[in-house]
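Regression test attached.
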Amino acid sequence: MRLSEIGEFNLIRRLRTLCKSTAKDIVLGIGDDTAAIKIATKKILITSDMLLEGIHFDLSFTTFYQLGYKVLAVNISDIFAMGGNPKYFLLNIGVPKAYDSKDIHKLYSGIMKIAKKFGVVVVGGDTCASRQGLVLSGTLLGHADRIIMRSGAREGDGIFVTGTLGDSSMGLMLLKKMRTKNWKLRTSHFPVPTSQLRLIKRHLMPEPKPLKNTEGITSMIDVSDGLLIDLSHICDESKVGAIIYKERIPVSRELINTAENLGLDPIKFALTGGEDYILLFTAPPEIKTKANRIGEIIKRGRFVVDSRGKKTPFKAEGYEHFKTVNSR
Amino acid sequence: MRLSEIGEFNLIRRLRTLCKSTAKDIVLGIGDDTAAIKIATKKILITSDMLLEGIHFDLSFTTFYQLGYKVLAVNISDIFAMGGNPKYFLLNIGVPKAYDSKDIHKLYSGIMKIAKKFGVVVVGGDTCASRQGLVLSGTLLGHADRIIMRSGAREGDGIFVTGTLGDSSMGLMLLKKMRTKNWKLRTSHFPVPTSQLRLIKRHLMPEPKPLKNTEGITSMIDVSDGLLIDLSHICDESKVGAIIYKERIPVSRELINTAENLGLDPIKFALTGGEDYILLFTAPPEIKTKANRIGEIIKRGRFVVDSRGKKTPFKAEGYEHFKTVNSR
């Protein structure tokens, strides 16, 4: 049924049922002027991220379910980047009124899927009509015993990443190529090889993962805008330099194969492609970790070293709103 | 300078300076993956409200300063409606990249104006390009010792409001009339009588006010969608009925005069016009308060009584997203 038929208040009633929680710390969930929560710890983290149609997503190649999953995933990734645990989520949505209420139901199903995975409760939000496409704005609260900022990196620290880089941006590129061919995409029976599907999935449904042990870690950020930009944020905030080795950057077999087929350089995707939502952190080099050490924090200057040992300065290249010409 | 010239990260740097706070409870403000706050109380309130261009506002008759003021005002109003104190604000903005960075500066000046008035600190948010007009999504956290919900109204309680009703919706109507005449509006030298200017100001820059003493109050909500809708929310949540007396509803001299000049009924604006952002609450009738008692909570049924004692059932009439045809 169209939203214009069921109306705002019936929609909120449905979402309230869908998001109901029996968690004891939730004094009030959806349905009053605000949500109310009993906080067990004294330090809370808050992050807020917006996804706009035409900038962050394209409904011709993402489902509502995937979009719901992603809007919470990107917020969870920010909480993980501080060494925290995600807890309470609020979603503001602006929806064109010709949309079907089933679409919103699917969006919330995606949210609830990842919410349950990480013990997040949806406690509120705002629902309104939009004249300009779909607007999603999520806010996530979390706890942290020890907060890991961008500003603690020290000269001599190693630079580590927790997963492969560049997959998401290659996934996006594949989606865009498919769109120009005017393929109608269906995630269930996809007319592309499984390896490419994996890249696409990393773009549409990122899977944030927390660091199990943050002891000794001096700074951390999630890779959302691209490795070089996000590492630059750490350098800016910590007032240090960095050197990274191309050969050590973890790239997936899928990215290498796909890039080779297209005659493109996979490392370019790994360095500047955004939205991988893995963690980038610094720590003394002797730290015990499964993460890949890709470089070192130095006093000043920012360099990429290639396989022949050639050192090239890098800038904060990647995705920057208002500046980057293409939308994601 | 255009946003496309200064870019996202320079913009964030400026906003960070503008919103800097020395409050001791702010562990981390703007500039990391999340904000971090030390919470003194154990109960927190969270509310999130979105303002979309073409639905909630029209840049042909609001300034960026007023818009910034309003996006925080409407969130503060929600915290007041719970009997709480507003504390920490996050703003997500989606801005077309052709905008000037001065516009965003003005928007934040409006936010900072009302933030300082109520001791609110701007701790974070997300800044991104938008292809579809200006998008504002605010999230506000607050404290409360005692939370006043919509669900506590009891038969026999009086129904109270803390200010005049209908001013904001009449103000909006005046703005729309002016637009059709193609007037270029300037708030400084406005080609309308002062009385009408007051109505317009109540629409563009609502002034939320907290209740000083919430002792004895059984339920509360802020009037954002219109008296009849918001009272219906209290009735729904409290499982009670209500009777209100038209003659007791406080309406401003400005509203009466303007409505008379236009041949319209001021009480219609007071009953169904939204966005007054005053408080509507219920309490035993003997409670000491300066608020206007406009009716009583009854067992069931919802009625409006006119000056001749005629009782008419009312429905939840007012502004409802997806259903209401005209934008605000």
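Expected vs. actual: identical. Chain A has two domains: 3-143, 158-313.
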